[in-house]
Design goal:
This protein has 582 residues and is α/β, with parallel strands linked by helices. It folds into two domains: 312 residues, ABC transporter type 1, transmembrane domain (ABC transporter transmembrane region fold, Up-down Bundle); 218 residues, 3-Layer(aba) Sandwich (Rossmann fold), CATH 3.40.50.300. Helix content is 64%, strand content 10%. Helix 6 runs antiparallel to helix 8. The longest helix is centred in the middle third of the chain and has 54 residues. It is elongated, with a radius of gyration of 35 Å. The N and C termini lie far apart (80 Å). The mean pLDDT is 82.
Amino acid sequence: METFKRLKEFYWPYKKLMLWSLFFLLFVTGITVVYPIVLQQTIDNVVLENQYELIPYIAVAFFLLMAIKGVATYYHQYLGDLFGITAVYKLRDSLYEKLQALSFRYFDNARTGDIMSRLTQDVEGFRFFLAVGFAELLRVFLLITFSLAVMLFYSVPLALVTMAAMPFLAVVVFKFDKRVHPAFQTIRKSLGRLNTRVQENISGMNTVKSLSREGFEIGRFSDSNDTYRQNYLFTSKIWARYFPLMEFIGNICVVALLAFGGYLVVNGSLGLGELTAFFSLVWYILGPLMNLGFIINQFSQAKASGERLLEILDAEEDIVEKEQAKGKDIKGHVSFRDVTLTYVADDDAALKDISFDAPPGKVIGLIGSTGSGKTSITQLITRFYEPEKGEVLVDGKPVSDYPIKNLRQQIGFVLQEPFLFSTSIRENIRYGNPDMPEEQVIDAAKRAQAHEFIMEMPEGYDTMLGERGMGLSGGQKQRIAIARAICINPSILVLDDATSAVDMQTEFKIQQALKEVMKGRTSFIIAHRISSLKHADEILVLEEGEAVERGTHEELLQQDGIYRRIYDIQYQDREAIMEQAN
């Protein structure tokens, strides 16, 4: 029950809905137990006493009871569902808000399919127990209590004999719960892994097909699917092992009832109608008790789901905003002071003692091999990660002194692989500034050299994009992402290999446009092409997280180091090849 206590804040505010639902459940259960009493009266007072004139009255009374039960059932079910869906509405919102608050470190280790499984199937499993499972548990308790009370009223000895095997049934149910709960935890985890496999395959379908790895992916999915199947079959075996035992114990109760009850009827200690009512009432007890396994099944699934949801809610937010943080306009003066960053404990540092100063309007170029730490520098400016050592300053203040939203709203990011949403091109461009006027959206697109190809599309700026910008080339996606960055009018601009997917001519046009955009803004250009950053005020050459060279384009060419070698590969070797071709 600890899981339900910890999630109490989400459903307890709506306890009135639950209590009203249970109030109507009380009516439904009470009327259900009246049925055997009506049957007993009909047999003993009408059939055996030949008082057939009472039948119309009994029929009308029975009809009224069914009508009342129908109305009560409607309100019980509706209010129960309303309670469940309202509670998980708040829970789902909180989970989504939590995911927005978690840092990149969490998502570095999380699997998309597993997160989706938690926010859909696990939330739904928890909702179902709130709406149905808990009420079913109470219904079992009420039905057993009411039925036992009537049975004791009819005959205490017969009730005691009939109920003698019930403690054994309770023990079996308890053992069943202890076995089935861990099994359902395993099922939930394997289902999350299965969803992850599907999500990764669909997202990477281009890669799968281009490398002809369909067979390999089918095999991996089949393995995950088989693991899920095996886990589910293991749970089914537990169910199949315990349910017949519960049914066997229940049948012992029925045999005891018929044997001893028949003896009492022959002796005249019990009426035939009372025995018939007894037989109905005992199934009102045995049925719910055997059904208790199903309810425990639901409870176990809900508990396992709740535990997986709590893992998200309890996840540590390592990027915490200070209470005294105050928002203000940023001029864009960025400074790094002996900054060291390690993504994973006991792993090699991604950045080692990085220091530089970038006054407003200055352009910093970052170049180096993959994994050298280029992107890590820009992710520290936006406070996606916290440095292990050193300080990252913006306008002379540590980035932790700014409200996170205020800081990031003034930094424009254009990534190497830009993400576009499944909406119109216009909405993608002004995603960071939803109220931007149409003319400014068009101006931003023109600066990014995107306006021309947008107007060639069937619906222009109203063209709807597919998932992740499906339907656009890599260069078109990057130009829309550049326009999106321009729209927020950032003080700091980060171009993470932003022109890698465009041809040389388009790159030149974009660079000319960006020169105007970068005026007065601190800009960071991450690139593999020297042509993209040779105009920078300072270039840092990174190698294994260290700044091994720094200076202007001309200064670095004179050093005859890594930068010079990159230049020779990109320019001189290319010129030699062109000469040979001529």
